[in-house]
Amino acid sequence: MIIGAGGVGRVVTHKCAQHPEVFSEILLASRTQSKCEAIVADVRQATQHPALTTAAIDAEDIPALVALMRSFEPVLVIHVALPYQDLTIMEACLQTGVHYLDTANYEPKDEAKFEYSWQWAYQDRFREAGLTAILGCGFDPGVTSVFTAYAAKHHFDEMHYLDIVDCNGGDHGKAFATNFNPEINIREITQKGRYYENGEWVETEPFEFRKSLNYPNIGTRDSYLLYHEELESLVKNYPSIKRARFWMTFGQEYLTHLRVIQNIGMSRIDPVRFQGMDIVPLEFLKAVLPDPGSLGENYSGETSIGCRIRGVKDGGERTYYIWNNCSHQAAFDETGAQGVSYTTGVPAMIGAMMFLTGEWTGAGVFNVEEFNPDPFLAKLNEYGLTWHEEVGADIEL
Ligand code: NDP
Q1: What are the structural domains of the chain?
Q2: What is the value of pTM for the model shown?
């Protein structure tokens, strides 16, 4: 059962339907059923999957979720709606004995703050119920976490410095648009930055640190230090890490728009009174910005996301870079969605496949780096996101 019929939900539905031997029955449920129907019509045509259905669901309504899960009886929920719904869907899974997977950690609507504590608190309940919850199985978090696990397993005795680098070298031709849900995206990047060093979190002003980094097949791009959720679980699961940072590229035009949006109050997440009703400016802004799902056509260029790691192996210092480049156009040709939705949806499908085929097992709440990275990365190559690695790379950081 897939929840969420946005850009990512479109890709997940396509990719699951390409593997009916694993995903024999698929229900796509979301707030607006017509969006589910439009996706399913495309997927049916592309894959001829024989058992695709849709439903309307408010994923913040636990009794409604429980009723839908009781009637469809899914083995696993792939949650690709919004992070606000993580906890209600986890609750419904516990009530119905259904396993759970998502791509973004919980954040409350009234506070732009995301961390794993809320979902890690479900550990005992999932373990006691014999259920698996797989957290953060998109690209970042997700593939970046698996890349780190793969590096730890095959290339390092100890990892010391981890830099996750995320570049969107694409051009969608719009003056300003976000590549995934604008509300979630703008909340994320206007927060203070944070990185981990010597056992402590160091806070930075938004966009305070910039480095010019070179990305394969794209070139040099200004990259800014941000906080990103996988840092929290990676430093916990790899205690040898002394410093962990996350960098994302932004163009000057994007940053200028963002500054204006903030300066005029349109990024506010508290309600304001307007013509007799309460509206949240950022929610209103989302309604007038381009739908990320519509950016695919004529989107040129590539994304490039990877991990640059420094540590020791066999007594010597080692550097290592592991990354994927994804073409927006190729993603659109296959699924009707742009590269950012594609790079999130493909790993979500593969994570679900890992679980359903018994490669990833265990009762409790897990971040993806806790599982065996090898079968996941083998499928990543096979199912659309080829990855590359370089030992001894100039990692620039
Ligand atoms: P979209 O905004 O395009 O889609 C979200 C979908 O969720 C919409 O169809 C929306 O319905 C639906 N939805 C919202 N609220 C509810 C609700 N209460 N009940 C049921 N359905 C609801 O977002 P994206 O597809 O771009 O992103 C999906 C998720 O993926 C987000 O959580 C995002 O944070 C995550 N993500 C993760 C990444 C990673 O690498 N780990 C990268 C990019 C995204 P409606 O259409 O009616 O509004």
Answers
A1: 2-135 (3.40.50.720), 143-334+377-391 (3.30.360.10)
A2: 0.97
